[in-house]
Amino acid sequence: MFSTDRAQAIADRVESFVRTVVVSYEGDPRCGFHGPGDDLVMELREKARAAGVLTPHFLPDGSHLTQRETATVLIRSGLSPLGPLACNTMAPDEGNMYLLGKVGTAQQKAHFLAPLLEGRGRSAFFMTEPATDGGAGSDPSMMQTICVQDGNHWVINGRKAFITGAQGAMVGIVMAKSTDGACMFLVDLPDPAIRIDRVLDTIDSSMPGGHAVVTIDNLRVPADQMLGQSGEGFKYAQIRLSPARLSHCMRWLGACIRAQEIASAYACRRMAFGKPLVDHEGVGFMLAENLIDLQQCELMIDWCAGVLDTGALGTVESSMAKVAVSEALMRVADKCVQVMGGMGVTGDTIVEQVFREIRAFRIYDGPTEVHKWSLAKKIKRDHKLH
């Protein structure tokens, strides 16, 4: 993977911190069914701050590493499911920070971005809506949440679903539809007009606050807290989503690299039928196939990051990367569980959790099938042009 000296130095510090400090917290009882508790998150972030690896993909002058440099760093932070939380490289905060850095005004950055960069609070991105309401999911044009201007404020009403980290968040980015089109608003949380109806029970458990269903009831937002311009919300969503999809790939690649390490170590020491498991072709070949998939994931991430670094929106490239990497990592995680047999389905290592998280990752930021459908439409358009 392409890297620079500065990115490699940051990544080395991040990896050392994750392996020597964060890994020891993986069995902490504060890691609950709906994600790690905020007290654990803040404890880890204090340790990351002391180690100089908090929000490592942002430089001291406020600038962001290139996407290829970010990949070098975020892969290392993902070596533990708790690593991105500790280092402040976790979704949805990482994507929200990126968007605010690109679109926010100086005043908005001072009020909403600064505490996120400093790791003092978490954020949530309110876009997806309940399917039962016919709301926006993979098709954002179905958005039902509305916003109406009232003097120097906007009033927002609607429902949202699968809102990661809404429970306990400090900053919210709310998407709603005006007569101009989609809009984004920055809000301080908690707010009594944003009610968490319930936190869903989901297969994954790595994200603080879990994934909530939310009702927004006459939320009043000052006009100067609109992010960008009225009607431009979908454009801003793409600014956020392309690198955010790729960041997911980076972090979960790190997790699968660690799962492969654990499964390989197990296969090399576990004896069966007179020899180590790794010497049985059925096991050794699975681990070999994992090495191939991991290398291909790294190359795909590096290629897509390079496209984004040219200034391109990268929606097509990020769709391809998201599909290829999520599906490959699913194969890797599944084989790691299989290699470890009964141990692989226990909580004695992180392999079982990584398997669950990767299964959910195939749906995060658009299911595989939606991305393939989008790519197929591009093929059809390109064919017509010729």
TrEMBL record:
GO terms for cellular component: cytoplasm. Transmembrane segments: none annotated. Residues 231-378 form the Acyl-CoA dehydrogenase/oxidase C-terminal domain. SUPFAM superfamilies: Acyl-CoA dehydrogenase C-terminal domain-like, Acyl-CoA dehydrogenase NM domain-like. Its EC number is 1.3.8.1. Residues 126-201 form the Acyl-CoA oxidase/dehydrogenase middle domain. It is an enzyme of class 1 (oxidoreductase). One of its GO terms (molecular function) is short-chain fatty acyl-CoA dehydrogenase activity. This is Butyryl-CoA dehydrogenase. It comes from Sphingobium indicum BiD32.
